[in-house]
Design a protein that fits this description.
heterodimer, A: 218 residues, mainly alpha, 7 helices, 73% helix, disordered N terminus, B: 146 residues, two-stranded antiparallel sheet, two-stranded antiparallel ribbon, 5 helices, 4 strands, 8% strand, disordered C terminus
Chain lengths: 218, 146
């Protein structure tokens, strides 16, 4: 159908959405073609959102690298941070990403119980990750490592703090999905909300993979 | 949406297009790469130069990131519209990095070089000194060995 034909239908009310004589007239034109992108709108939106998130973290990491390279004496992160514990925490976050894949796979196969179980594992992994990070912060602060002390700590808290905030948002989002899953809201034909939450969760995992390398190992 | 699945219980569906991949294999690969990365950065090349240590770490990080991006986020199986949506992002990242480069390359010529701070020891009141020459705070000394 051409644009002019569609416009004609919209103007004269001919076609499947035509208005009967006894019905009130439409105030807005109704087109019987899809003007949206050739992908689900929600998925399009989440990818657009993730693109902005990439730029957000790029700004943080880019600034960190400038400060890092421009500083004559940058302390060795291993002397200040608990690399071993954080490496274990990284394993945990990667594992939670894997359980998220399994959760999506479960509902695609029609397993409601599988979805609830794997989502629960993902939430548990995310919550544990945040808990370990909070514990790390408390230990550091207890030893006087505050953001105001030097540029190392201010960049450390800024980057890991914003990432931690994203993890918290992800856990809350997954809990909301989990509640819907317990109520049986998802089916093999209707699981888009699980997929969208999963995309966000994998993104959070991806960012941490980069941050762990840059902040803790380099 | 399509409901086409592989027979492998570990295989994961990719969304709208019916492709499958082994989530278990990706997970194990990520696990091994993370272990290798820690081994590389914290043990094997701990005291090596930036080229070797950082170079290896960056390779590991981008390898892992690309696996998550390609399979877990199933970008490999997405349509052209999503790929086009993400395509400008690496270009914008390059712009940000190159825009910040002068701050690094001209660092010696800056009035207030990155990493400098005011001398609080009062030996040079009001002067800007590099971080390594600045007197340490009791807090930062404590933080060196938490």
């Amino acid at each position: 159908m051409t644009m002019s034909q569609a416009t004609a239908i919209a103007s004269h009310g001919v076609g499947p959405h035509a208005t009967g004589h006894d019905e009130p007239a439409h105030h807005h034109p109704i087109f019987d073609y899809d003007s949206g992108p050739p992908v689900d709108r929600a998925k399009f939106a989440i990818w657009l959102f993730l693109a902005t998130e990439v730029m957000f973290f790029t700004g943080l990491i880019g600034t960190y690298l400038v400060l890092r390279i421009g500083t004559a004496s940058w302390p060795n992160p291993e002397n200040r941070l608990a690399v071993g514990i954080t490496a274990a925490n990284t394993f945990l976050l990667i594992t939670s990403s894997w359980t998220m894949v399994r959760a999506l796979h479960a509902i695609q196969k029609g397993s409601q119980k599988g979805l609830v179980r794997w989502l629960g594992c993902t939430i548990l992994g995310g919550a544990t990750f945040v808990s370990v990070q909070v514990f790390e912060y408390l230990e550091l602060i207890h030893h006087g490592a505050l953001p105001k002390v030097d540029i190392f700590w201010s960049t450390f808290y800024t980057m890991t703090g914003f990432h931690g905030l994203h993890v918290v948002v992800g856990v809350i989002w997954l809990i909301a999905i989990w509640i819907s899953a317990v109520r049986g809201k998802f089916t093999p034909q209707n699981f888009l909300r699980v997929e969208l939450a999963g995309l966000y969760w994998h993104f959070v995992d991806l960012v941490w993979v980069l941050l762990f390398t840059i902040v803790y190992l380099m | 949406m399509s409901n086409d699945h592989g027979n492998d219980p570990a295989s994961a569906h990719s969304g709208d297009h019916g492709h499958t991949f082994s989530a278990n294999k990706i997970f194990v690969t990520l696990f091994i790469l993370t272990a290798a990365e820690v081994l590389w950065g914290a043990f094997l090349f701990k005291h090596s130069g930036h080229l070797v240590k950082w170079g290896g770490l960056i390779v590991f990080a981008f390898w892992k990131g690309s696996l998550i991006y390609t399979y877990f986020m199933h970008m490999k199986f997405e349509g052209w519209i999503v790929k086009c949506l993400i395509a400008p992002t690496p270009i914008l990242i390059a712009v940000v990095v190159f825009a910040l480069m002068p701050d690094v390359s001209n660092n010696d010529h800056l009035v207030y070089p990155v990493g400098s701070q005011l001398d609080k020891s009062n030996q040079h009141p009001g002067k800007v000194v590099p971080m390594e020459n600045a007197p340490k705070h009791s807090e930062s000394e404590a933080a060196e060995h938490p």
